[in-house]
Design goal:
Strand content: 25-35%
Number of helices: 14
Shape: globular
Radius of gyration: 29 Å
Number of strands: 18
Structural class: alpha+beta
Largest sheet: 18 strands, mixed
Helix content: 25-40%
């Protein structure tokens, strides 16, 4: 069957590295916030350390540190859950239908079940496996490859005299440097010809219509008349192969010099790692080290981006560092051992001493699990094909779409927030109370008259633990009314 887990996990790739574990049958993700660093950054941004602010930050930290994700699948069923303090807050379940399609239910739209027919899925799969598409791809590749070869031949024809010596770059020592004596104007013209030719190949293959092609001839004419063409210098680095005597090039350095600034692009393979660097700096910075130092000190006229990747059959690592008036970085690592995959993504802000947020994911392959199939019950079945057709006809005001959104607003959000309040009552209700207060914009002329009433309506968090589930739900409904969510729902036409 189409891997349900892969579909579910794709929806949360933006939250963590869960998307890299689509080949597993079961995966869990946890989030860890660096509380001390978070407090420091929040203090810089909010500029206050009063009791109310500290209480709010405490609830935000608790919420993030107790957040989790869970996804699992068997041959015909899959489930995804957003958890809080180990309890499901938002769930989505998917099952294979008799016709080979899918049916999905979720807390977010509790009154409906969404379906995709087997015919639609087969059409999608056939598009990916269609022989005509494969022939088209082969035709495009066949046409483009000679263009790329001609492009590289033209560039390499500008190779200067090789220089033998010792050249230290990125912690490695190369013994050969080969200059590429090509101007920025020449390289731009070659590149523009390459892009224009490839675009024409795509038109002939039916991938894009001819009337959507840019005016390459005008672009070439404009380039030829341009007076402010930057200077370009490029060097290739490598070693001489001891057996063949041929140069083995594995690193390139290019410098683009404009009137007011420089751009340095360099990268290649170093010590079994793939590394790339992009450095931008004002003309006053004469070397790459000067640009890097300025960027690391927060200069506004210097930017550095470093990318480092390494991998093997059992390991994959990627690090992206950005220095642009401040420091930001993402470090991802994934390790595969037998039937277990572990992955970690760390997010750094302002400092590389410790990550602000760390996401840990554990996935199990060949997990022996069984998941209960989806039960539609009294839910109304909505076909995704019908929703698409309705949207194409009436847009977002289509009755079917309005009814689904109405269910999300009136029932789904309440269910999710109710689950969250049951999992972490004090934290969730404190945040809801804060949002409720923030949504109200008082008239300055009546602030004093209403202050006492507002104080009376403020939620006493100490009473939450003694509330029943029904009382919590009633309290949430009151908060919804203050947030005017129900008013927005009432304005939407009924299904």
């Amino acid at each position: 069957m189409t891997r349900i887990l892969a579909i579910l996990m794709a929806a949360v790739m933006a939250l963590s590295c869960v998307g890299t574990l689509a080949e597993t049958e079961k995966a869990t993700a946890t989030y860890t916030l660096n509380d001390e660093l978070f407090d420091s950054l929040a203090g810089m941004l909010l500029g206050g350390d009063d009791e109310g602010t500290q209480e709010l930050l405490g609830h935000v930290k608790a919420l993030i540190n107790n957040l989790g994700l869970y996804a699992a699948e068997d041959d015909n069923n899959g489930v995804f859950q957003l958890t809080l303090a180990g309890q499901p807050v938002l769930s989505c379940a998917v099952s294979r239908t008799e016709d080979g399609g899918l049916v999905a239910v979720s807390d977010l739209f509790p009154s409906y079940a969404l379906t995709v027919s087997g015919e639609t899925l087969n059409q999608l799969m056939s598009m990916l496996n269609d022989e005509a598409m494969q022939e088209m791809v082969e035709k495009v590749i066949t046409a483009i490859v000679p263009r790329l070869e001609a492009y590289m031949t033209a560039v390499m024809s500008k190779v200067g005299e090789p220089e033998v010596g010792e050249f230290a770059i990125d912690g490695a020592t190369f013994t050969l440097r080969v200059p590429i004596e090509i101007t920025a104007q020449e390289l731009a013209e070659l590149t523009l010809d390459l892009v224009a030719g490839c675009a024409q190949d795509l038109v002939e293959a039916g991938v894009i219509p001819a009337d959507q092609l840019p005016d390459f001839e005008s672009a070439k004419a404009e380039l030829a008349q341009s007076e402010n063409v930057p200077q370009l210098s490029m060097n290739l680095y490598g070693t001489m192969d001891a057996e063949t005597g041929e140069p083995a090039i594995n690193y390139v350095v290019g410098v683009i010099e404009n009137e007011n600034d420089n751009v340095l692009i360099m990268g290649g393979t170093v010590n079994d790692q793939v590394v790339y660097h992009v450095l931008y700096g004002a003309k006053t910075y004469e070397t790459a080290d000067a640009i890097r130092e300025a960027a690391s000190n927060g200069a506004s006229d210097a930017v550095v981006v470093d990318v480092i990747a390494a991998g093997s059959e059992s390991f994959l690592g990627l690090e992206v560092d950005v220095f642009a008036q401040a420091f930001f970085a993402v470090v991802m690592e994934m390790t595969k051992q037998e039937s277990l995959i572990t992955a970690q993504t760390a997010y750094y802000v302002l400092t590389d001493a410790a990550p602000l947020l760390t996401v840990n994911v554990v996935g199990e392959m060949n997990a022996d699990i069984e998941i209960a199939p989806v039960e539609i019950g009294e839910r109304t079945v909505l076909a995704v094909e019908d929703l698409i057709a309705a949207y194409q006809k009436d847009g977002e005001n289509a009755p079917e779409i309005t009814a689904l959104l109405q269910d999300v607003a009136m029932n789904g959000l309440g269910t999710v927030l109710g689950n969250a309040a049951n999992a972490m009552p004090e934290t969730v209700m404190a945040l809801m109370n804060l949002f409720s207060q923030m949504s109200a914009i008082p008239d300055e002329t009546v602030v004093e008259e209403t202050k006492e009433a507002e104080d009376d309506e403020e939620i006493d968090l100490s009473e939450l633990e003694e509330m029943s589930e029904e009382e919590l739900e009633e309290l949430l409904n009151q908060l919804f009314e203050e947030l005017e969510l129900d008013e927005a729902v009432e304005e939407a036409p009924a299904a």
